[in-house]
Automatic annotation (TrEMBL):
Origin superkingdom: Eukaryota
PANTHER family for this protein: DYNEIN AXONEMAL ASSEMBLY FACTOR 6, TWISTER
Species of the source: Alca torda (Razorbill)
Extent of the signal sequence: none
GO molecular function: dynein intermediate chain binding; protein-folding chaperone binding
One Pfam family cited in the UniProt record for this chain: PIH1_CS
PIH1D1/2/3 CS-like domain segment(s): 32-127
Protein's recorded name: PIHD3 protein
Gene Ontology biological process terms in this record: axonemal dynein complex assembly; flagellated sperm motility
Gene Ontology terms: cellular component: cytoplasm
Recorded family membership: Belongs to the PIH1 family.
Length: 136
C-alpha cells in the first residue's frame, strides 16, 4: 500500500468531488420541478426491419437525451439554464433543478425550447460517447 505524496494536508482529492457540486445548495428553499428524461435514436429501415446494424432499443444505442421539465407559472425570460458535460442546472424564481445526467453530453451544442402551452422546457442534448461498434 503506497500513499501518494502530493500534499498530505489535503482532506480529499479533486477527482473525488462530483462535477456540479459547486451548484448544490441545501439551504435553497425553492422546490424541484417535475422532470422526465427521454432518449432519442435515429433508425432507418435497415435497422428496424432488416437488423443490419447492431442497434437495439436500449439507451446505449441512443444519440440524444431529451429532458422535459415542468415549469408552471414561469416565463421564458425567468429561466436560467447551465449545461455542463454531466450536469444540468436550471433556476427560476420558484424552482431549482440540479440534475446529474446519466451520460456525458455535448454541452456546447444543445437545444432548448419552452412550450408555453404545456408550461414545459424541453432540452435536447447530444450524448457524447466513444465510438464503438454500435454508435457510428
Amino acid at each position: 500500500f503506497q500513499v501518494k505524496s502530493e500534499n498530505r494536508k489535503t482532506i480529499w482529492n479533486t477527482e473525488e468531488v462530483p462535477e456540479g457540486s459547486e451548484f448544490d445548495d441545501t439551504w435553497d428553499p425553492r422546490e424541484q420541478p417535475e422532470y422526465q428524461i427521454l432518449f432519442k435514436q435515429c433508425v432507418g429501415t435497415e435497422d428496424v426491419f432488416f437488423g443490419m446494424s447492431r442497434k437495439d432499443p436500449s439507451t446505449a444505442c441512443c444519440e440524444d437525451m431529451v429532458i422535459k421539465i415542468k415549469l408552471p407559472e414561469t416565463k421564458y425570460s425567468d429561466i436560467t439554464l447551465d449545461i455542463q458535460e454531466k450536469v444540468l442546472d436550471l433556476r427560476t424564481p420558484q424552482k431549482k433543478l440540479l440534475l446529474h445526467l446519466p451520460y456525458r453530453v455535448d454541452s456546447k451544442n444543445g437545444k432548448a425550447r419552452f412550450l408555453s402551452e404545456e408550461e414545459t422546457l424541453e432540452v435536447t442534448l447530444r450524448v457524447s460517447r466513444m465510438f464503438d461498434f454500435i454508435n457510428f
